[in-house]
Design brief:
single chain, elongated, alpha/beta, 2 domains, 35% helix, Rossmann fold
Length: 335
């Protein structure tokens, strides 16, 4: 009834919520994908999800630091009339809207999907309603609870046919600091990287499942399991060498730079080819003697120190260009 899917970036958590939502509505158990028919399964789920969204049985919202109780449950909004008069009205939030729909149709199931739940201030967003989502506190249960909403003064309870499915990225914030009141009211399911979904993804003798496995093994060594990358990066729009180079340059490398605080030497090490002479990065050596002064004694006279003690050669790591990668696809063979 209340479930949080957690895991690293790119494991398809948001897509998994769509599968669970459809399962809740249809009382089915479609859960497993295979590399053989992934595209067909993906299209099937996407079609079903779009249908139930249009039927207002699935609602989707993303939490963020500025998201509030007023947007989630209800709040007061100002409206200006043609004559310039300001009127204040109560505006229902997404949680109140879907709850009312679920109450009005008790024989149908409804699903609220909350993406990135740990990015919002959960205690403030849910407010007093955090108790009402407990399974034994739902309407119709022996220990059912309801509250009076602060703005509309309406009695409010949560029905049994409303399911809440959320996601959280463990690389954004550890699961531990999540509000304890929320943790007690949700079950947690970890979504792990699944290289087997890439078993049939082979581009010019480059095995994408092996690439993912090796990258994650190296990341785990440096940072731990919460910073791995998921299989989703390679599932869509990854059909040729040009696509693969684009994914590494625009998605994988920027993500790794974020993980390693722009330490390109570490990023280069994560993506290092099995051959020491092949790499996604090229090294540039900066000689300070060519950058600042033609003669060392100019520095010594003006700054009161020894040039060689103050300046040292600096190595800069820069990613290869897209064309350089395409011309030398062997750089992908990091496994």
């Amino acid at each position: 009834m209340n479930q949080i899917l957690y895991g690293v970036a790119g494991t398809g958590k948001t897509f998994q919520t769509k599968i669970l939502a459809i399962n809740c509505i249809e009382n089915t158990n479609f859960d497993e994908f295979s590399s053989d028919n992934f595209q067909d399964d993906f299209a099937y789920i996407a079609q079903k999800y779009e249908y139930y969204t249009k039927e207002n049985q699935i609602f989707f919202v993303t939490f963020h630091p500025n998201f509030s109780y007023q947007e989630f449950v209800e709040g007061i909004t100002a409206q200006t009339s043609p004559t310039g008069e300001v009127h204040y009205t109560i505006k229902d939030g997404i949680f109140k809207i879907i709850t009312q729909k679920a109450i009005s149709k008790p024989k149908e199931n409804f699903v609220l999907i909350i993406d990135e739940i740990n990015r919002g201030n959960v205690a403030k967003i849910f407010g007093e309603l955090i108790t009402l989502i407990e399974p034994n506190k739902r309407l119709g249960k022996s220990d059912a609870h309801s509250v009076i909403l602060p703005y509309s003064q309406e009695s409010f309870g949560v029905p049994q046919n409303l399911h809440i499915i959320a996601t959280m990225n463990t690389a954004d914030r550890s699961i531990a600091p999540l509000d304890l009141a929320l943790r007690r009211r949700f079950t947690f399911r970890e979504i792990l990287p699944n290289p087997s979904l890439l078993a049939n993804k082979i581009i010019e003798n480059i095995y994408l499942d092996k690439i993912l496995q090796k990258i994650n093994q190296r990341i785990v060594y440096f940072l731990g399991e919460n910073y791995q990358i998921g299989h989703s990066y390679f599932l869509e729009n990854c059909d040729n060498l040009e696509d693969l180079a684009e994914i590494f340059l625009r998605k994988i490398i920027p993500l790794l730079r974020e993980y390693f605080f722009d330490d390109d030497q570490k990023v280069a090490l994560i993506l290092q080819n099995k051959s020491p002479n092949l790499s996604f990065f090229k090294k540039e050596i900066f000689n300070p003697k060519n950058l600042f002064f033609e003669k060392n004694n100019v520095f010594n006279d003006n700054f009161g120190g020894d040039f060689d003690d103050f300046f040292q050669e600096k190595i800069i790591y820069k990613p290869l260009s897209k064309q350089e990668i395409i011309k030398n696809p062997a750089v992908f063979e990091i496994y």
